[in-house]
Amino acid sequence: MPYFTYILECADKTLYVGVTNNLERRLKEHNEAKSGARYTKIRRPVTLRYSESFRTYAKARKREAELKGWKREKKLDLILKNVH
């Protein structure tokens, strides 16, 4: 089962980085669930802007930590370079 590191854009234009093994379900949770990430719960709706897949949870978490350490501009550059 693949794991995904993803970047969401919140309604207030802030960015959120996370990890999941089911991107579709997790996006729905961020937008609809009463539980879950407190950060996105108060900044709905959120939009998936970027994702990467990994074979292991450990690799996905490592990439998540890397992206969380980046400044906003670098994250936006990554998003823009990967728009199809």
TrEMBL record:
Domain GIY-YIG positions: 1-77
InterPro entries associated with the record: GIY-YIG_endonuc, GIY-YIG_endonuc_sf, UPF0213_domain
Database matches in PROSITE patterns: GIY_YIG
Pfam family of the protein (one): GIY-YIG
SMART domains reported in the protein's UniProt record: GIYc (SM00465)
Family: Belongs to the UPF0213 family.
The protein's name: GIY-YIG domain-containing protein
Source organism of this protein record: Candidatus Giovannonibacteria bacterium RIFCSPHIGHO2_02_43_16
